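G., the chain you wanted modeled:
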Amino acid sequence: MVAGVAHEINNPVSFIAGNLRYANQYIDDLLDLITVYQGQYPQLNTTIAAKTKSIELEYLCEDLPKLMASMKVGSERITDIVLGLRNFSRLDEAKIKSVDIHEGIDNTLMIMNHQLTLSDKLPDIQIVKEYGKLPKVSCYVNQLNQVFMNILNNAIYALKENMQYWQSTTKIPTIQIKTLVVDNERVLISIKDNGPGMKSEVKEQIFNPFFTTKPVGQGTGLGLSISYQIAVEKHQGKLSCISALGKGTEFKIEIPIQNFKESAITSIEPLP
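Predicted structure as tokens:
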């Protein structure tokens, strides 16, 4: 679905971006023509003078190029998001591929960027990246991206559910993402938030299917159990959680860099 949506958005965005270049040129030519007219005919008749005043021509000529520039920036932003969606889904790459893990994390963050804003005039959730030097990693890239999205979504939810705390402290809600190579054989991805943390009895159940602490209608309890299946069974890796009340939560994903056999599991249920 994500790949299909990205494809459908890409066509009109490409049309808009391509025509903005010509629109800018046409507008520049018209503004130059107005300048020439004003130089040749500085004395305006009453009708033209009235129209010039009513449309605020001077302000229009100053603001229109800025407007076009902002539209160009907007179209480029949409193009980047579409590319991120396509890279995130990678439905054409169902088999094991050697990929840049950081690219997958960055694409996931781009898709989730709108969720980082808190209400009540609080600062946005900050993303702190501590990327190590990683080699290309052999993995099921679209499924691993699902794991990143699910864990980041849980971290964002935990931070947003703690609004009273952020209102009473100078601390900033933060998600820290760290990557490194372990023993030259495995890659470790750590995603840690400074939220409220979990009780031990909750932490013990988080990878169980259908377990959730979210209100009815906001979660199915399948996300982390599927993430565990992807990391452990599909990639012969590890997925662990470190958390305590008042000390935030950290998820650690550890997978081999290469040379693991394709799992007998042929499909993974999509995340909710």
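The beta strands are 97-99, 126-130, 137-139, 174-182, 186-193, 238-243, 249-256.

Shout if anything looks off.
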